[in-house]
Amino acid sequence: MHDDGSHVLFVCEGSAEKAIIETLIESGKIGVPLDRIEEDPEAGTLYTTKRSGAAITDTFLNFDYGGRPLLIIRIIDSQNERFNLRKGYERRAIVKTLLTRPEIEILVILREQAYKHWQKSNMTPSRFCKEKLGMSDIKRYEFIKDYWSSNPDELCNAILEYQRIHNFKDKELCLAELLNQ
What we know:
Oligomer: single chain
Structural class: alpha/beta
Strand content: 5-15%
């Protein structure tokens, strides 16, 4: 996603997504200037966990963003999740969805240089991380945050490697779209 001057709202579905976005923002690896990332006024975070279109409309779409629509980037692992803004607000925002299924755990597998071993394992990425890599807390925010925040460059490398090896469907977006390129 190129920087076109729009304000950006990150919508994070789960704890792993929150930890990844925080790490990318804090390390300056995200391709959006900090002053254009919208803060959740209730949580005080540079992302929101609100997932309904109505809640996002009510909280974020009653402001002027310099005459531009707000770019809402949903970072979720379910491609079937419906998202609709309230009627009359559709032109006030552009919505992009980044799918992270099974990307979050695959990033860890890539960093651990265990991708080929995982492919042969017939295990889900989450189970592989737990059983083969000894990462029983792979789904917990604290684990993911600690794991990546010590070396955000490795996070970026894993994200780019995942983009390189994964067969994305037409118009499917991934975390690599967010990085400074």
